[in-house]
Sequence to fold (307 residues):
Amino acid sequence: MAKFSEQLQSFCDLALRLAELHDVDAVLFVFERPTDWKQLQKAVSKSNVVIAGDTEEVVAGAADEGFDTIVLNMPADAPTYERLTQALLEGVAEEFFPEGASVVAAYSGFEAGPIDSVSLIKLDEHLGRLTVRDLRQLKTKVPVETIKLVVDLAVEIGREGREGKPVGSLFVVGDHRKCMEFARPMGFDPVKGYTRQERRLTDAKVREGVKEIAQMDGAFVVAADGTVVASAQHLAAPNTPDLTLSKGLGARHWAAAQVTKATGAIAVAVSESNGTVRVFQDGEVKLRIEPFRRAMKWKSFDTDGPT
Ligand SMILES: Nc1ncnc2c1ncn2[C@@H]1O[C@H](COP(=O)(O)OP(=O)(O)OP(=O)(O)O)[C@@H](O)[C@H]1O
Fold:
């Protein structure tokens, strides 16, 4: 049984005191190793506490004690700031924290392992709002779960790149038959020949495979149920005069605008130059997500504007 240390007890006390003083909405603990969840539940009593951990193993058992949990799945050497940001983002996405919440976070900020730091964070200042509600606003037949899967994947591609190099990418999601009418292979399609089961984005292994392929030229076509229909596709939907895109966005983003104008699909584009993810619908950018280290922000409308 993982130990509940005296240090952890004092940080619980400290976090709760700060939470009460500032009337915050939730307390977030970011753990690098498991603890005695029962003991923690006793220590925090009725407060709204969310537990984030690096892996499933770290948070195993926490949900049984009534905690909301988040698994970060980030590289082991990810900086504290990024881990904390990711935990906050996930917390907002899962709706564990209300919009514009203030949160007290307890985490290991100085040395790996024990919790040694407490921060008071106002979410609107730290990051914009990423909410499932934002995705729902897209008013599309594509299930929000599928869009969320693709957006999360796109954000990871934009943030991580591949082998240290930035990677751009394009996904079109939903209305895949119509999308395929505008698609032609740009070369070898690595997903061809695999069964549907082997192409489901709900499978973490498939998502890893997609990240590998993302560095190739062309777009992924994804069905509404999250199956990758084709990859490395050149998309050429007709241009319409009412389409506008901000300066600096090139062929990839135009393809996203055009295909979403011509079909009922949502497109998710990752820009190679800075990792920004844009969600297109009906020929327009509807959401923009900035990558880490550039004030991670979800915006519910396009601030680019036509030029
Ligand atoms: N019509 C298209 N369909 C699918 N993929 C495309 C299309 N046009 C361009 N791409 C992909 O986008 C890549 C980048 O093109 P370009 O630099 O013009 O796009 P961009 O919109 O400026 O994107 P980025 O910000 O990533 O540079 C191309 O190498 C290609 O892989």
About this structure: The two ends are 60 Å apart (CA to CA). The first strand starts at residue 26 and ends at 31. Residues 293-303 have pLDDT under 50 and may be disordered.
